């Protein structure tokens, strides 16, 4: 019964949306150029008129919900809008029109929201892309983009997505957690913070390692706050998320190829260029590809105190991942030479984990102390109680 009622409501939304759009067009109201209050009033009147004309019995609560949905549909990103406004939600995942999931405090759960059909999902994706001059069609069926608030969006449509169009949104939070917040949440201890702050101030080269959703960017942002104020910092990211409260920061961002497949600027190119900009430190949002070569060489040639993150489930895994990235990037050197390069460039790895209950935690901090027989010899500077 509930499914049928929901289906009827989705059909009502579809019909009402078309009537609202027609009414706005008849009244000559351009949504992008008109005062928001005026548009909302026009939408409200159009909804009430449509329901009255069709004599649809709706309670005040349902009427108010329909009006809110139409405002979100016309002026925002439809069913995504309430979830984007909710500060407790970190990720929004749309697996077709009827399967919408959200992550709240590290726990994935099904959301109440749903779309009318595949076309509705695609319409919302295109609305996101419109101001960015990006396209999504059969010739270009997947895209990365960024919402005005900085949230990252990935969208992919059929024929690549077999079960309907998919949207993945990693929300951007301008209010990053402080050290006190993380200590209070049990994500780290005072001792852990002391070790990290000392490493930053002593210009150690740091790699933050962790799996998906462990808070790597949050941690990188946190430890960056302890960089001395008289240093020049360059940040390089695929999608700007770092918010450094520092007086001298130059922020660089990669650029994807245009619709003709041209104009792409990679993280590797930006690292090379950054070295010509007299940085005291380079902060690379995440190591994913050949930029690792330039980053390691920069760490080895006078840019101490540089930092980055990497996707790995353990400290040893992080080093193996770097080796793999070097190999696939065509870095031609012996296993011994690669070991020496990595061991001499990196000083410290901060390992993050996410526990089954969704809690994020600094599980370990290790210092690389290369030996002749072991370039990856590690010494623990900190271990959480769960790791001991």
UniProtKB/TrEMBL annotation:
InterPro entries attached to this UniProt entry: AAA+_ATPase, P-loop_NTPase, T2SS/T4SS_dom, T4SS_GSP_E_ATPase
Superkingdom of this protein's organism: Bacteria
Domain AAA+ ATPase: 202-357
Any GO molecular function: ATP hydrolysis activity
One protein family per Pfam: T2SSE
SMART domains per the UniProt record, alphabetical: AAA (SM00382)
UniProt family annotation: Belongs to the GSP E family.
Name of protein: Type II secretion system protein
Organism: Alcanivorax hongdengensis A-11-3
């Amino acid at each position: 019964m509930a499914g049928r009622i929901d289906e009827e409501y989705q059909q009502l939304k579809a019909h009402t949306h078309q009537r609202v759009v027609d009414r706005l067009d008849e009244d000559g109201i351009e949504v992008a150029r008109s005062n928001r209050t005026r548009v909302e009033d026009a939408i409200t009147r159009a909804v009430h008129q449509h329901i009255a004309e069709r004599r649809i019995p709706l309670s005040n609560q349902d009427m108010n919900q329909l009006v809110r949905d139409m405002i979100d549909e016309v002026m925002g990103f439809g069913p995504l809008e309430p979830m984007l406004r909710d500060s407790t939600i970190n990720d929004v995942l749309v697996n077709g029109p009827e399967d919408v999931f959200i992550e709240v405090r590290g726990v994935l759960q099904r959301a109440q929201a749903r779309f009318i059909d595949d076309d509705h999902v695609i319409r919302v994706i295109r609305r996101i892309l419109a101001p960015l001059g990006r396209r999504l069609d059969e010739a270009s069926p997947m895209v990365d983009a960024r919402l005005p608030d900085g949230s990252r969006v990935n969208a992919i449509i059929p024929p690549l997505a077999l079960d309907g169009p998919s949207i993945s949104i990693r929300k951007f939070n301008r209010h990053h957690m402080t050290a006190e917040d993380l200590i209070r949440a049990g994500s780290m201890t005072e001792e852990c913070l002391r070790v990290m702050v000392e490493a930053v101030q002593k210009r150690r080269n740091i790699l933050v390692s962790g799996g998906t959703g462990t808070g790597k960017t949050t941690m990188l942002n946190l430890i960056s706050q302890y960089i001395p104020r008289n240093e020049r910092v360059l940040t390089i990211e695929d999608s700007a998320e770092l918010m450094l409260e520092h007086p001298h920061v130059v922020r660089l961002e990669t650029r994807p190829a245009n619709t003709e497949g041209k104009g792409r600027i990679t993280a590797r190119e930006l690292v090379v260029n950054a070295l010509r900009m007299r940085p005291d430190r380079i902060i690379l949002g995440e190591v994913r590809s050949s930029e690792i070569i330039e980053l390691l060489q920069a760490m080895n040639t006078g840019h101490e105190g540089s930092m980055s993150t990497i996707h790995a489930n353990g400290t040893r895994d992080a080093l193996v991942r770097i080796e793999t990235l070097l190999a696939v990037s065509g870095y031609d050197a012996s296993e011994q030479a690669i070991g020496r390069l990595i061991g001499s460039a990196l000083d410290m790895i901060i390992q993050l984990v996410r526990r089954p209950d969704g809690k994020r935690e600094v599980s370990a901090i290790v210092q690389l102390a290369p030996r002749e027989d072991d370039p990856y010899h590690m010494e623990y500077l900190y271990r959480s109680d769960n790791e001991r």
